[in-house]
UniProtKB/TrEMBL annotation, chain A:
Name assigned to this protein: Amino acid ABC transporter ATP-binding protein
Species name: Paracoccus alkanivorans
Taxonomic path: Bacteria, Pseudomonadati, Pseudomonadota, Alphaproteobacteria, Rhodobacterales
SUPFAM superfamilies: P-loop containing nucleoside triphosphate hydrolases (SSF52540)
UniProt GO MF annotations: ABC-type amino acid transporter activity; ATP binding; ATP hydrolysis activity
Superkingdom of origin organism: Bacteria
Domain ABC transporter: 6-240
Keyword ATP-binding: yes
Keywords on record: ATP-binding, Nucleotide-binding, Transport
From TrEMBL, chain B:
Family recorded in the similarity comment: Belongs to the binding-protein-dependent transport system permease family. HisMQ subfamily.
Pfam families found in the cross-reference section: BPD_transp_1
Main location as per UniProt: membrane
Lineage of producing organism: Bacteria, Pseudomonadati, Pseudomonadota, Alphaproteobacteria, Rhodobacterales
Protein's name according to its UniProt entry: Amino acid ABC transporter permease
Organism domain of life: Bacteria
Transmembrane segments: 20-40, 184-205
Domain (ABC transmembrane type-1) ranges: 17-205
Cellular component annotations (GO), alphabetically ordered: ATP-binding cassette (ABC) transporter complex
UniProt key word Transmembrane helix: yes
Residue stretches in coiled coil: none
Amino acid sequence: MTEHAIIMRAVNKFYGDFHALVDIDLTVERGERIVICGPSGSGKSTLIRTINQLEPIQSGTITVDGVELTAGGDNVAKVRQDVGMVFQSFNLFPHMTVLENCMLAPMKTRKTPRAEAEETARRYLERVKIPEQAGKYPAQLSGGQQQRVAIARALCMKPRIMLFDEPTSALDPEMVKEVLDTMIDLAREGMTMLCVTHEMEFARAVADRVIFMDKGLIVEENAPEAFFGSPKNERLQNFLGQIA
Amino acid sequence: MIREFSSADILFIVSAVRWTLILSAIAFLGGAMGGLLIALSRTSHSKALRRMAAGFIQIFQGTPLLMQLFLVYFGLAVVGLPINPLLAAAVALTLHASAYLGEIWRGAIEAVPSGQTEAATALSLSYPDRMRHVILPQAMRVATAPTVGFLVQLIKGTSLASIIGFTELTRAGQIINNATFKPFLVFGTVAILYFILCWPLSLLARHMEARMRRAITR
């Protein structure tokens, strides 16, 4: 068991000529909760998407739970089993019920028996407070409920790290809270979390560290009080002024 | 020598419908398998596979079905196989259907939002599991109506097999016409039989398309 959950070293990512991530160095401790913010196009989503290699990188190394992603073999598959992800647009499978959404990956990739997968799924649906929706299809649920299903679906793989890519940006305002509450519960239970979000209340409540990105660089990182109380970088000051 | 168009002739023509159906079924099933391979190749990460599949589609969409039938029919002899109209027609129509279904299904696969692939990938589902459980079931909904539409084209396309001497519906009509010389009556009968086969399928395709449109706008 290594101490660090995630180690990124000199990570560079290009889209054609566009330099999306510039020499990113980031170490995440076990159980640490990190919030990443920044203007659109700053590379914050790209950053967390490189951790489960939804986005391949061009140089540098990423090590997740002691497994080096870039080393090849079935390392990527191994890392993806341990890293859950929640998307802005939920991305539930529309042709499956809520329960089936939660059971598919454990049964296929972890080879969990059906009965056990169903039990686990029902337990996590209970935890995100929608056990009664298990038999419904995603289209029958509200946005907030869909996102909580997406969180339960990721948790059913029993991940050690959870990535959140703007999980509340596509939600109507009245549904943001129910999703944030679910995330706060998860944070309190000690899950290692990286969240791309503009919900600064959430950052203040649970983050151990807040990271500000701009133009593919990590510009500033600090504990929430210092981050919001005394931002040093001018771009961060402007950014905080805009979203406050 | 010219005899009357009798009920026995009608029976002969009607019984040839089964060969049209058999040929259509072989071509459709073969084309479904080939088309799936083509569609998966066209949407794969491998550039070589994508190019090969694209080339295959261009060749078979860019040449007349009749030429494909001729080339396969005479090609069998060139490679030393016995000349067999059913085999030649089945092979040519299968290749033809593979190209068209492959292109229809590629479009359907690409119509599934990329977020679905991302979510499945993030859950560590393997490529076969992703396709089988997540992408293809959703693509199938989009593809059903145009697939049935293509089946109608395919059934009508089997009539070209008459030219290489395979006795399906059209060829049966030609044989009877040569004996009775009642072309309008004979080919009218043949056309009605094609219509009876194809019309319900066309209706079904239109019905499914309308249902799809309602599902999307909902």
